[in-house]
Write a structure and sequence with these properties.
Number of domains: 2
Helix content: over 70%
Strand content: under 5%
Distance between the termini: 50 Å
CATH superfamily of the largest domain: MFS general substrate transporter like domains
CATH class of the largest domain: Mainly Alpha
Radius of gyration: 24 Å
Shape: globular
Largest sheet: none
Order of helices and strands: HHHHHHHHHHHHHHHHHHHH
CATH architecture of the largest domain: Up-down Bundle
CATH topology of the largest domain: Growth Hormone, Chain: A
Number of strands: 0
Structural class: mainly alpha
Length: 459
């Protein structure tokens, strides 16, 4: 819908980019608390509400009149997706354990690929026939039926469910006590620095910069002392007992501590941010690229991009999941390899896709790019699930979504749009394959650590 929106609402490429990032930013911020809520209460309930919310705000996007109204609607779609993503993958991990997990999540990813690409295809057809407003409405309405069906899902594992009021009360009480304990050095030294600075200010011969410097030294020491106390505390708070946290605040700390003490997750989080930057930046701008560079209509984009990107994405997600599981049976780093190598191989293919002018080469390069760029869907999520305790899987997946989206694809659409406003869309989009190759290489760094981290979880 980028090009019709640009025309009808008089938007710049930068504004179009922010429309895409509004959804991603809210998705990232909401994923961790909703992941914790799914671990604490009901994954089925969080999924059903998520589907219903994103459907409602997708449909409302067809009624807007101004940029900021559409910005708000697209942002609130992110709340629904944040509820759906981590909880659904954690639920799949309960159904499929061991060596079938990556392929199962690969099948789940085919649904996401099918929905995303078919949305572009059908959106083009609907926009051409009825306008972009009708397309938004038509894309949102079916989700209400799916929300009702999602509410019927079976949850294999039962979890203790504290009341929301009890959860809130305990979270506030523990949060205040712990904040007071950990922030004590910063507060005390800050007050000491303020007092000494005030005393020095009484002497006329002392420059004002000295007062500020004294306060700055004490505040810096206090901050460093606070961090020094926080990090070991976070590392100590691991889930070795495997018990489910009883409050949302505990789940936040649990997820953070698991990430801090698991080197594999550090590699995966940083690599995941770079690869989501590449993938979702490509998806966001591919339609505009094809219309501006190759002169295609909205319908032509939907048919060409829809068919071949869907075929490549579906086969790539299935192939990557199957390859990750097959390699895992022979080598503990199999899923990590399947996650990273697709982007290393796919970077040059994606660059060729953006540079080629011959129509005959465009379609096979489009297919190959999405085939390689979707290998990671099943294996990468499985790597995260393999190295964390079962009780906090949705919470840690929420933390992964938070980091990878905020540090990755939330930046891609507006950044590419800003560059495009200045140098053109083709040059701007060449940033994407470079980020993908770098993300694949960083992900492969987890080959050094994944065996130890999996052994610790098993122990």
């Amino acid at each position: 819908m980028f090009e019709p929106l640009k025309r009808d609402l008089a938007l710049s490429d930068q504004q179009l980019g922010w429309l895409a990032s509004a959804y991603i930013i809210v998705l990232a911020v909401a994923a961790l608390p909703l992941g914790a809520l799914a671990d604490l209460k009901s994954r089925r309930g969080v999924i059903a509400w998520g589907v219903g919310l994103w459907s409602a705000f997708t449909a409302l996007g067809g009624l807007v009149q101004r940029f900021w109204q559409l910005f708000v609607c697209r942002a609130l779609v992110g709340i629904g997706e944040a509820g759906y993503g981590p909880a659904s993958q954690a639920l799949i991990a309960e159904y499929f354990r061991g060596q079938r997990r990556a392929f199962a999540i690969g099948v789940y990813s085919v649904g996401m690929a099918f929905g995303g690409v078919a949305g572009i295809w059908l959106g083009g057809e609907l926009e051409q026939a009825y306008g972009w407003r009708a397309a938004f409405l038509a894309m949102g309405i079916p989700g209400f039926v799916l929300a009702v069906l999602a509410a019927q899902l079976r949850e294999p594992l039962q979890r203790r469910a504290a009341s929301l009021l009890t959860t809130l009360r305990r979270s506030v009480a523990r949060g205040v006590r712990r904040a007071a304990f950990y922030l004590r050095p910063l507060v005390i030294l800050g007050l000491v620095g303020t007092a000494l600075g005030s005393v020095l200010a009484l002497f006329e011969g002392v420059p004002s910069e000295v007062d500020a410097a004294v306060f700055g030294v004490f505040a810096t020491v206090g901050f460093a002392w606070t961090v020094w106390r926080l990090v070991p505390a976070a590392v100590r708070r691991t889930t070795e007992a495997g018990e489910v946290a009883t409050t949302a605040f505990e789940d936040f700390l649990e997820a953070a501590s698991v990430v801090l003490r698991t080197p594999t997750l550090i590699w995966v989080f940083v690599g995941g941010a770079l690869v989501t930057f590449a993938v979702n930046g490509l998806i966001a701008w591919a339609s505009s690229f094809m219309q501006r560079v190759h002169g295609m209509t909205v319908t032509d984009v939907g048919r060409n991009f829809g068919l071949w990107a869907l075929a490549g994405s579906s086969l790539g997600a299935l192939f990557g999941g199957r390859m990750g599981d097959a390699l895992m049976r022979r080598w503990v780093g199999g899923r990590v390899l399947a996650s990273g190598v697709g982007f290393v191989l796919g970077g040059p293919v994606c660059a060729a896709l953006l540079l080629v002018d011959r129509p005959g080469l465009f379609v096979p390069l489009l297919f190959a790019t999405f085939f390689l760029y979707t290998w990671y869907n099943g294996p990468l999520a499985s790597v995260v699930l393999d190295v964390v305790p079962a009780a906090v899987r949705a919470s840690v997946l929420g933390a992964f979504v938070l980091f990878s989206h905020l540090a990755g694809d939330a930046l891609a659409p507006p950044l590419i749009g800003t560059i495009s406003d200045r140098v053109g869309i083709r040059t701007a989009m060449l940033v994407l394959p470079a980020a993908g190759v770098l993300g694949g290489l960083v992900t492969l760094g987890a080959l050094r650590t994944v065996g130890r981290d999996m052994a610790r979880v098993r122990a």
